[in-house]
Amino acid sequence: MDLYEYQARELLEEQGIATPRAIFAQNSHEVASAADEIGYPCVIKAQVKTGHRGQAGGIKLASNRDDAILTSEQILPMSIHGHKCSGVLVAGAKNVLHEYYVSISVDRASRDFDVLATANGGTEVEVIAKEHPEAVKRLHIGALEDFDLAAATEMAASIGFYHADVDQAAQILLKMWRAFKENDATLVEINPLAKVGDPEDESSKTLCALDAKISLDDNAAFRHDGWERFKDPIQTDPYEQQAREHGLHYVHLNGQVGVIGNGAGLVMSSLDAVSGAGEEQGTGVKPANFLDIGGGASAEVMSRSLSIVLSDPQVLSVMVNIYGGITRCDLVAEGILQALQTLNSAKPIVIRFDGNAAQEGLSTISQANNPRLHVAKTMEEAAQTAASLAAQFSPSSSWPSKENR
Amino acid sequence: MPLFIDAQAPVIVQGMTGHQGMTHTARMLAAGTPIVAGVNPRKAGSSVAFTSADGGEVDIPVFADCQQAKDATGARASVVFVPPRFAKAAMIEAIQAKIELIVVITEGIPVADTAYCVALAQRHGVRIIGPNCPGLITLPNEQNGAGTNLGIIPDKIVSSGPLGLVSKSGTLTYQLMGELADIGFTACLGVGGDPIVGTTLLEALQSFEEDENTKACILIGEIGGDAEQEAARWAKEHMSKPIVAYIAGFTAPEGRQMGHAGAIVSGGKGTAQAKQDALEAVGIRVGKTPGQTAEIMREVLAGAAR
């Protein structure tokens, strides 16, 4: 789970990392009083779970109250890269002398943790890594080891923090590591970690986290009260909401074929097959969702899954792709019929069963004698059929959603 | 040398008395896996009756911990079904008892716990497979003897043959096993769908390269991380046997986790396209669908036989 900046800041502050004073606000009234409290000039920052906010116009400086209100009225309704703005952070503006980048993340390849830092902060670290690889310092923290002050100091020195900043930077690295570990984070990133203050007054200069990005490990939610305090205030997709309530892995996409299968890999593969079929058939038909019923699903789970998918008006046909390992195809078949008894849907459903109790499942389907149910021998055939049925079901033969591709 | 583990190696099941544990212990025993004990501190001293491969009844004793189970039975492998919050302790216990091979089926283990256990296992010379994986099946042949089934992979799909299969996904493993059932396999290994796993795609290829019965490999990848790229780089230098690959998740949107904890494209990294490109750059053919992947493997085998 990715956090908003205002949430990520909380976790840094809990460790004692300095951040500019800031207040989260969700409407222009709140913004006005927040800005008055913070003082001018202040920065109004869109709270979205995506990068490149600045380039998209999501971060602006406000020099007075009217300016703050006007700016927030522009930013609050924004969607940045498809992410709806959940509010703005009104933060004190700082005089930035220098910008560093520091992050700690899970390193999948070396199976440990990775501290990444550069003295050329402020922009995308990937860009710096490409253009000036020598400027990016990397240090691994072994999964059995800890990161201590000595290691943090060495790291800070090697990053190229200015001499006077090394000790402070080492403390920040250490605190970031604590934030990472204690919160079961997969990423803690400060970009920029800025040196701020009055250029003429040495004693005013200090390191400050001007932005924060933190991702938490969903698998660790059980030991953090389910991350209750980081619940997204933005209304989530209703289908994703429903699926989550029933413990199903569901991702809403923007195509026309609902896809249900067992196992994440098989469902992803089914999405690709639908997409490929739409391309081949020249209709541009795409998958409408990812839904994994998991291993050993009951008839109820299948029935509920199909109900969620069929209730989506975007869905014009459904592909059910089951390779029965533990999952029994006969139970899946029962689930499909159960769902159809209660739902009044004319949408065609293409079924592909293989493996455990596939024959029994297919005979249950054929006995139902329902013209909406189509059976396919292979998953490739199922994808082709589902894609072409979706195209026929639509009023126009050529699918008009080019912007969705 | 047997592939991964020899078929006679005695196996314990951690979390045997739970629902998943009971179901799959019964299945594995019926498939002929030599399961000798279960582990559950609260049920130590009891035993559970199962039906063995020959249809007779077999009592499987339950021990308080892995060390006791190992001392009493000589166990060399463990299959772990314990829930995520207890999985770290279960893995540590098995590692400290020096169980050689630990197959972790459990889905939903925090990545920090897995990282810790994988590092600890390496330090003790123990191999973890998974977590969040379907496990390992080896098929009967001269070296492996009877073959063994550690985990939840259905055993009736395939017979012995020259193929090795390694996959990040369970059902795609079964799918390809089914597609190539007539050719057959030496072993099929699901490495798991988590960001950090105990045995990587690369390490599985290494084992298949060393195994003389394996003549060609199927590699099934999916979005997230760059284990496929690593495997490709290694294969270019070290793999003498042909590999045919399949990658799932071309249509997955950026930043969305697709079922598996590790299946996520983030910051433009871990895309299916990047994996396909890396594999093709070293001469590994990548099928568009599982069916086409199987067809390519048939072509490759026919070409090699010529």
Automatic annotation (TrEMBL), chain A:
Which reaction does this enzyme catalyse, per its entry?
succinate + ATP + CoA = succinyl-CoA + ADP + phosphate; GTP + succinate + CoA = succinyl-CoA + GDP + phosphate
The first-level EC class reads ligase
Detail which positions bind Mg(2+).
Answer: 191, 211
- What cofactor(s) does the depicted protein rely on? Mg(2+)
Tell me yes or no: is tRNA processing among this UniProt entry's keywords: no
UniProt keyword terms in alphabetical order: ATP-binding, Ligase, Magnesium, Metal-binding, Nucleotide-binding, Tricarboxylic acid cycle
Instruction: Please report the stretch or stretches of sequence annotated as the ATP-grasp domain.
Output: 9-216
Q: Which domain of life is it from?
A: Bacteria
Pathway, per Swiss-Prot/TrEMBL?
A: Carbohydrate metabolism; tricarboxylic acid cycle; succinate from succinyl-CoA (ligase route): step 1/1
In this chain, ATP is annotated as bound at 45, 94, 99
Q: How is the cofactor bound?
A: Binds 1 Mg(2+) ion per subunit.
* Annotated residues for binding of substrate: 262, 325-327
Return the EC number.
6.2.1.5
Molecular functions per Gene Ontology? ATP binding; magnesium ion binding; succinate-CoA ligase (ADP-forming) activity; succinate-CoA ligase (GDP-forming) activity
Give the Gene3D superfamilies listed for this entry. ATP-grasp fold, A domain, ATP-grasp fold, B domain, Succinyl-CoA synthetase domains
By sequence similarity, the record places it as follows: Belongs to the succinate/malate CoA ligase beta subunit family.
Q: In UniProt terms, what function does this protein have? A: Succinyl-CoA synthetase functions in the citric acid cycle (TCA), coupling the hydrolysis of succinyl-CoA to the synthesis of either ATP or GTP and thus represents the only step of substrate-level phosphorylation in the TCA. The beta subunit provides nucleotide specificity of the enzyme and binds the substrate succinate, while the binding sites for coenzyme A and phosphate are found in the alpha subunit.
Q: How does it assemble?
A: Heterotetramer of two alpha and two beta subunits.
HAMAP family (UniProt xref): Succ_CoA_beta
Q: Which PANTHER family match?
A: SUCCINATE--COA LIGASE [GDP-FORMING] SUBUNIT BETA, MITOCHONDRIAL (PTHR11815:SF10), SUCCINYL-COA SYNTHETASE BETA CHAIN (PTHR11815)
State the name under which the record lists this protein. Succinate--CoA ligase [ADP-forming] subunit beta
Q: Which organism is it from?
A: Bifidobacterium psychraerophilum
From TrEMBL, chain B:
Matches recorded under SUPFAM superfamilies: NAD(P)-binding Rossmann-fold domains, Succinyl-CoA synthetase domains
Q: For binding CoA, which residues are annotated in this chain's numbering?
A: 17-20, 43, 105-107
Q: In which pathway does it act?
A: Carbohydrate metabolism; tricarboxylic acid cycle; succinate from succinyl-CoA (ligase route): step 1/1
Stretches assigned to coiled coil: none
Pfam families in UniProt:
CoA_binding, Ligase_CoA
Source superkingdom: Bacteria
Q: Which residues bind substrate?
A: 174
Does Nucleotide-binding count among this protein's keywords?
yes
Biological-process GO terms, alphabetical = tricarboxylic acid cycle
What does it catalyze? GTP + succinate + CoA = succinyl-CoA + GDP + phosphate; succinate + ATP + CoA = succinyl-CoA + ADP + phosphate
State which Enzyme Commission number(s) the record gives.
6.2.1.5
GO cellular component term of the entry, any:
cytosol
| InterPro entries the UniProt entry points to | Cit_synth/succinyl-CoA_lig_AS, Citrt_syn/SCS-alpha_CS, CoA-bd, CoA_lig_alpha, NAD(P)-bd_dom_sf, SUCC_ACL_C, Succinyl-CoA_synth-like
Family per similarity comment: Belongs to the succinate/malate CoA ligase alpha subunit family.
HAMAP family named in the record: Succ_CoA_alpha
- What is known about its subunit structure? Heterotetramer of two alpha and two beta subunits.
Q: What is this protein called?
A: Succinate--CoA ligase [ADP-forming] subunit alpha
Name of the gene: sucD
